[in-house]
Amino acid sequence: MSLSRRTFLKTGVAAACAACASQVPKTASAEQPRVKELATLIDIRKCIGCEACVEACRDANADKYPDPKKPYPKMYPSRVKVEDWSDPEGRETRDRLTPYNWLFIQEVTVTHNGEEITMTIPRRCMHCQNPPCADLCPWGSARKLKNGITVIDADLCLGGAKCKSVCPWDVPQRQTGVGMYLDLLPAFAGNGVMYKCDRCYNRIAEGELPACIEECPEQVQTIGPRDEILREAHRLAESEDLYIYGEHENGGTNTIYLSPVPFELINQAIQQGEGKPHMNAVADQMAHADNLAKAMVIAPIAGVAAAVGRVYKAIKTSEEKQEVTR
Amino acid sequence: MSRPILPNKTIAEQVWIKPVYILIFLLMGLTGFAQMPIFKRYYIADIPGLGWLDQYYVTHTIHYLGAIALLALIAYGLVTYWALLRKQYRLTVLAWIRVALLAGIVGTGIFRVLKNLPDVVFSPGFTMFIDIAHLGFMMAYLVMAGVALVAKKRWLTAKV
Q1: Could you read off the pLDDT of A222-280 as tens digits, one per residue?
Q2: Distance (Å, rounded) from C-alpha B49 to C-alpha B68?
Q3: For B14, which DSSP code?
Q4: Is some CB atom of chain A closer than 8 A to the CB atom of B79?
Q5: A289 in contact with B at a CB cutoff of 8 Å?
Q6: What's the gap in Å between the CA of A240 and the closest CA on chain B?
Q7: What is the rounded CA–CA span in Å between residue A240 and residue A237?
Q8: B17: DSSP letter
Q9: Contact A146 B121 (CB under 8 A)
Q10: Domain ranges of chain B
Q11: Are residues B83 and A25, on separate chains, in Cβ contact within 8 Å?
Q12: Phi and psi at residue B35, in whole multiples of 5°?
């Protein structure tokens, strides 16, 4: 039987609904019981800069550190940099983030309310809720776990350093001479492996605390479900006139700082640079992409609607011609 | 003499669909490959006017915009063929291959977009699979397009 105007519109609408339904993303809660994202609270008033956390981090994660074998393959073109922290001096570097130093203490002196204050601040991966490093990794080696921890899989990473480029704090650091790129085309693609704090995800999986939290003699850091950590942060902020950093930066992170002075002052006074992250405000880097993702749901509907209009016009024209003929 | 124009195509379709489609695909391919950190390494991003290929947030946004345009165009094409053209024309084998590859590209692309939403966490293996599959389908599509171009293959044949 021939296609009539009425039957086409009926089936067209059904097709549009099906197209729409099949592409609406399911919420995480609809798929499975939701694992709570973990967040840490860092109360920098308590930090005395003893570096016990740095030492604990190094001890606990030593077996994850890169162990490159020299000589490294020559890389082309010549602009490709070798980043090597594996000599004894490089391994011992503690004043910045490196492949062997996933956590370091930043010292800062600020004047607030007429009073000069020196503070020490533990710095490491912020573990964003919407991490650009994981979203934009073209190979899938940087990823976010269900408990909110962002991890770089050293067995898969090719060391392209895109995660560092897109990280608002430039946290991941590269070591040349290790990783999967050695098995592929080491001269022409890849450059080692990126390293950063993984929040001792293996210890957490076994019900233990991250090493830096467990070893801190001043209990500077606490860890727990994000909503509880935020509740505590706001309670302290309100009762003791403190400032919060990390809750909204980059769309929200799972590393929350509490400070007695505004973070704008800290950011102005802090020494920033390679491996030394800032504490500036950061807009949500992935918000635009997420909005476009939602627009993708509408796109096929718009295409179907345009086609429906076009087909309707064609049928109408065809019917008019038939009437003229008749 | 020139190839006969399909009688059911509108003037707008004859003029615009093919160049728009080709432009979208070129842009998607370019920004897709730009997701890998290779354009800076090999001086492509140093060519005047092409510096944006090294800006990951820029290429990512353009890739998403291209995906929106591609989804709309595919939906339009599907409905138009199903409602009008299929009465008189049949898809060739190469056209079916093209449909399958497009479905693969779009399907893996959808999963990749879902994976990037803040509340969606896929398993590591699945994430790698869709990443590599997305790239693989695109490579295969380029090969298919090359074959079609060189051999001057057609997508539709008239039903007798």
Answers
A1: 999 999 999 999 999 999 999 999 999 999 999 999 999 999 999 999 999 999 999 99
A2: 24
A3: I
A4: yes
A5: yes
A6: 32
A7: 6
A8: I
A9: yes
A10: 10-87, 88-160
A11: no
A12: -65, -25
